[in-house]
Amino acid sequence: MPLTRPARVSVAGHFGEWMQGRIGPEGEIALITLPCPALQVHASRRPAAQLQLHSAQRLLVPARLRAFLQSLNRQPLSLPAPRHAFTLRATMPPGGGAGASTAALVAIARLVRPDLDPAEIALACIATEGASDPLMWPRPDRMLWASRKGHSLARLPAPPRCEILGGFLPPTQRTDPRDLNFADISDLIAPWRQAAEARDLPEIARLASLSAKRNLAQRGPRPDPLPQLARELGALGHLAAHTGSARGLIFAPGCVPARAASALRAAGFRQILQFRAGGPV
């Protein structure tokens, strides 16, 4: 019996990465994402005479939507697209490093092909955009994700519980799948696994900070106010969208100072948010 296709869905984004980089100097681009339920893409569909897309934020363009639908349906590009009018709305800025583009594609897939498993959706995202976040999976922070291939390189323990306070520090930057200019983080993966297994949040924060610092040094050029803010506010460390404008401070649960949001706003951050991360399901 075929599955009923929903009329609307929401897909959570992420808030940058715990870490991202190459696995070896010339190796695969890989990341450990930071899921963020506070950031969502909302999508709806209705019957229409022809394919339509309404997205004031330009999360997708019609040509990319058409290619994605054809990839989902395993059809030649010459076949007509399904007759739907899609509306997309995001609570995160496109190019912010919060997964708006991937979340939009995952939402479209769940509207039209609820029978597909996450691995199939990931491959369609890669075929359409050339890069993907692992937002189609239920626990995306438990994998070392090959973002240019669309599959997991390794299963990982969940990071320990923590609180993230952050925002978006302009300018935005959309992911370019041809961009391979990332720092080598191969030496950070084993320590991450060990720290996650030991529930060692200070070490997790140190590793996330190191990944962010390495990539900022390599990719530049904007100075990063987060290390100084972390020291001033007593954070355990900081993290970043390695492509995009999301930046965050890592705190132990219940330890975010009351003045921290104002300090980020004064440093130029926009859309300040605070959310819990890590821990078991």
UniProtKB/TrEMBL annotation:
UniProt KW Oxidoreductase keyword: yes
Listed SUPFAM superfamilies: Ribosomal protein S5 domain 2-like
GO molecular function per UniProt: dioxygenase activity
InterPro entries named in the record: Ribosomal_Su5_D2-typ_SF
Key words, A-Z: Dioxygenase, Oxidoreductase
The protein's name: Biphenyl 2,3-dioxygenase
Taxonomic source organism: Thioclava dalianensis
